[in-house]
Amino acid sequence: MQTSFDCLPCFIRQAIDASRVFALDPPLRERIVREVLSWAAEMDFNRPPAIIGGRIHRRLREITGEDDPYREAKSLQNRMALRLLPRLKEEVAGADDPLWMAARLAIAGNLIDLGVNGEFAEEDLLREVHSALSGPFAGPREAFRREVERAESILYLADNAGEIVFDGLLLDRLPPGRVTVAVRGVPVLNDATLAEAEEAGLTGRFEVIENGSDIPGTLLEECSPEFRKRFADADLILAKGQGNFETLSGREEKIIFLFKAKCAVVARRAGVEVGTSVILGTRL
Known about the structure:
The chain is α/β, with parallel strands linked by helices and 284 residues long. The protein folds into 2 domains: 5-64; 71-281, Uncharacterised protein PF01937, DUF89, domain 3 (Rossmann fold, 3-Layer(aba) Sandwich), CATH 3.40.50.10880. It is built from 12 helices and 7 strands. The protein has helices spanning 8-21, 26-42, 50-64, 71-93, 98-108, 122-134, 141-150, 163-171, 194-199, 225-233, 242-248, 264-270, and strands spanning 137-138, 154-157, 179-183, 207-210, 236-240, 255-260, 277-281. The chain has a 7-stranded mixed beta sheet with strand order 1-7-6-5-2-3-4, sandwiched between helices. The relative contact order is 0.14.
């Protein structure tokens, strides 16, 4: 997906928000914002917007020496999701179509970002998740089921912490023994790494691999050779989140994207309204 002019304000917002998380003093905050402005002036608009996001956080790690400033927030997100998990498992088991319910909940789990500040109660989150289930949705149910059932090997590209707990609901409904889960190779934002996958209980149930990259998405040229081989060998790739859609949409591989369209740029690309939950693939 190409970068839009509408992405430019978001880059600046990301830089400002991240500088607060890293607790930069005003001179350093100004420095990183000015650097982002200079990158934007020279960027290739034919490339995905996630490249700038990765560059921002890479630079902040260099400046501060902090490898994972979102670690505490990510752990909080996982704990919140894990406390909800028993109730959500009951909802999946009692659904007329457990696979489809699990897929819908996996997408709705992205709302757990709202719990970063620790003031978002579990009941509030559960209410928001149910609201997402009844909200706008785009995706072909039977085509999704068909592709999942026929795939001999499935590579599942995870997105955020907290959300990765919800992903487990869907992973448990996929054909057993055929699934590998991929997480970020280096901490960036609140994206899930191996540590968060372990907290979420996935490492004991599935093979979990790292992609070798710190881009908030899956930019293959930035990933490790081992990951690229697994990507190429998979019969089906299930890609969670906007970042993966931004970096992988338009490729020829059999990819199904599962995400919530949170911004106008992504919504236009997907052909939906902002706020829509989406299951989208070129072969669906």
